[in-house]
UniProtKB/TrEMBL annotation:
This is SMP-30/Gluconolactonase/LRE-like region domain-containing protein. InterPro entries: 6-blade_b-propeller_TolB-like, Serum_paraoxonase/arylesterase, SGL. It holds the Pfam family SGL. It comes from Roridomyces roridus. Gene3D superfamilies: TolB, C-terminal domain. It comes from the Eukaryota. Residues 143-295 form the SMP-30/Gluconolactonase/LRE-like region domain.
Length: 373
């Protein structure tokens, strides 16, 4: 009787363990083959390297980028505990790229920014003025123990100008490990993700077991900052459906996308998730309302690449179409996949639905990739 129960329990434990291990192996890309998909009509733009985040200005087709150098990234990426302050100083920059003319403009900023996530939002009052919300991970000497001094900067940019005007620096106890940001068209409100619950420390590593989580915060320059939702696993890139308050957050550990609904008090409630068979990084929404997500076919090779950018790491991009018949259902289509030779270790994808172009870039990638779809 006891033996029977014991063997039943052992069998159950083994089954659960096998299921869990299988899930982990799938997420790590075990047994995954990398296809060649959508990667035949692409060009590389090496003048724009190590751009963590790209945002499209749809009316002009202009791409905004938050960039660095490959060497600097190998030293300093707080999100993955790369906290060596002796890398190159003040090399990060914002730029615009016009794919039709090939013009690259480095935007002069009145203060140095260690770039990460970014959003670019036309002002509701004057669409030729763009608000730029940018994560800034300032280096501090004791970074190894206390982490980066992270803030969120708000700039304003006149379309076509060569500079950014600084409006605000937001520093708050809830801005812990900021990763990505979505801003409001009034220049005064934003949601951002914390990729972890602490800046440094061993607890951060427990995130791979789901025992440590990220969060999303909300700031209003008039009323302050607060947590909008806590305990969000693998919180990474963030995007918002402009017209209806749906917020998407990529799950860079367990795969897929969290679908959140904005409440009247600007907190967020989780509604559903979009399953995708791999960890998901940064997100964007195109003109047709389709959500584009950068996939990590082999997350471990991505981590190795971030520490040593010369290593290849594959890339995928996925498009999630909302099902018109059911608000919580999405149809996900893989649109791009490459072994890393055409688009290396992509962490951010943007689709120009009007010009049928896909832009891909990576935190430590050697070049911007532009593909005709
Ligand atoms: C930090 O970077 C410097 C300069 O590249 C290097 O000499 C040093 O070994 C690095 N420190 C660590 C802990 O990796
Ligand atoms: C939505 O429902 C209509 C009518 O039932 C059906 O014809 C259509 O195929 C559905 N669309 C999707 C995307 O499932
Ligand atoms: C907003 O759009 C998304 C599709 O992207 C849909 O899933 C969601 O239900 C919509 N929300 C509302 C409140 O209409
Ligand atoms: C905003 C942003 O770029 N977020 C993430 C994109 O992907 C890299 C690589 O995994 C992450 O480190 C960023 O935090």
């Amino acid at each position: 009787m006891h033996l029977l129960r014991l063997s039943f329990l052992l069998g159950l434990a083994a089954a659960v363990y096998k299921l869990w291990i299988q899930q982990v192996l799938v997420l790590l890309g075990y047994g995954r083959t990398i296809e060649s998909l959508g990667n035949t009509d692409c060009v590389a733009i090496p003048a724009l390297a190590a751009c963590e985040k790209i945002v499209l200005h749809q009316p002009t087709g202009l791409l905004f980028l938050a960039c660095s150098t490959v060497e600097s990234r190998a030293h300093w990426i707080p999100a993955v505990d790369q906290l060596n302050t002796s890398g190159p100083a003040n090399v990060d920059y914002f730029a615009t790229y016009n794919h039709d003319s090939g013009d690259i403009v480095r935007l002069e900023a009145p203060l140095p920014v260690e770039t990460h996530g970014m959003d670019v939002v036309p002002s509701a009052a004057d669409p030729s003025q763009l608000y730029i919300y940018a994560i800034n991970h300032r280096k501090v000497h004791s970074a190894l123990t206390v982490g980066a001094d992270s803030t969120i900067e708000v700039f304003v940019h006149n379309l076509g100008a060569a500079e950014l005007k600084h409006l605000h620096t937001v520093r708050d106890p809830t801005i812990i490990a900021p990763n990505d940001v979505v801003g409001h068209s009034n220049g005064r409100e934003f949601f951002w993700t914390n990729d972890h619950a602490s800046k440094t420390g061993h607890m951060r590593h427990l995130s791979v077991l789901g025992l440590e989580t990220g969060s999303v915060g909300y700031c209003n320059l008039d009323s302050g900052c607060k947590m909008a939702i806590r305990h969000l696993r693998g919180a990474n890139g963030i995007a918002r459906q402009p017209d209806n308050g749906t917020v998407f957050v990529g799950n860079c550990i367990f795969g897929g996308v969290h679908v959140l609904e904005t409440q009247p008090d600007n907190t967020l409630v989780k509604k559903s998730s979009i399953p995708i068979d791999r960890p998901i990084d940064n997100l964007s929404i195109d003109k047709d309302g389709v959500l584009w997500a950068a996939g990590m076919p082999y997350p471990l090779s991505l981590l190795k690449h971030l520490a040593n950018p010369s290593l290849l790491s594959p890339t995928s991009a996925h498009a999630a179409h909302a099902d018109p018949n059911s608000s919580s259902q999405f149809r996900v289509v893989k649109m791009f996949e490459d072994d890393g030779n055409i688009a290396r270790a992509t962490t951010t994808v943007v689709h120009d639905a009007e010009r049928r172009r896909l832009f891909l870039h990576g935190n430590a990638a050697p070049h911007l990739t532009v593909c005709n779809l």
